[in-house]
Design a protein that fits this description.
Structural class: alpha+beta
CATH topology: NADH Oxidase
Strand content: 15-25%
Shape: globular
Number of domains: 1
Radius of gyration: 19 Å
Number of helices: 7
Helix content: 40-55%
Oligomer: single chain
CATH class: Alpha Beta
């Protein structure tokens, strides 16, 4: 990489911002772009090369079925949910042309704890989010309450150890979001002065 390339990457990372789900719409990434996104998502720290995560792509006709599933999952937990709430949930679940469901798949390992594997799954989600944004799409990583529903568990054929750790919604965005306040460095960064 040239110095200019490095500067461009750093500028991108310094300004990355999640899209608003309500602003996402078609077109989404095409198949070669999706393949590239998945390659980049998989390029994360993964102690032991366990690959403790997988992705399920929801797009096209499957989005309607996904919307129906979301409504059923909400109804299961909230039998008296209003039609307005259900309609809004269906719209939010289906308006982006691509919904990438990230599944955490922990692998038993004597030296690599589950929490470390979960961090790898989170890193894969972040890589996907950043790559989609770098391609010029809007993207947002959400973990709605319905992702914990047994109906979702069954529909996505999760094993008893697996769980959904996020849905990355990807599409074209009509209006970029303004940045939000970020934490002051002194609030989140300290230096270890000495060891006892």
């Amino acid at each position: 990489m040239t110095p200019d390339d490095r500067a461009a990457v750093l500028a991108f990372l310094a300004s990355r911002r999640s899209a608003s789900l309500s602003a996402l719409g078609p077109p989404g990434p095409d198949e070669p772009q999706i393949a590239r996104l998945m390659q980049i998502a998989a390029r994360v720290p993964d102690h032991g090369a366990l690959t403790p995560w997988r992705f399920v792509l929801v797009q096209g006709a499957a989005l309607k079925r996904f919307g129906d599933l979301v409504v059923s999952a909400i109804r299961l937990e909230q039998p008296h949910a209003s039609h307005d709430l259900l309609d809004e949930a269906r719209l939010r679940a289906t308006q982006a042309p691509l919904a990438v469901t990230a599944v955490f798949s922990p692998r038993p390992h004597a030296k690599i704890p589950e929490w470390e594997q979960l961090l790898s799954a989170g890193a894969a989600c972040m890589n996907l989010l950043s790559a989609a944004t770098a391609m010029g799409f809007g993207a947002v990583w959400l973990t709605p309450r319905y992702t914990r529903s047994p109906l979702m568990h069954d529909a996505f054929t999760l094993t008893h150890d697996e769980r959904i750790v996020g849905i990355i919604f990807i599409g074209s965005h009509s209006t970029p979001r303004e940045d939000r306040p970020r934490p002051a460095l002194e609030a989140v960064v300290t230096r270890l002065a000495s060891l006892a």
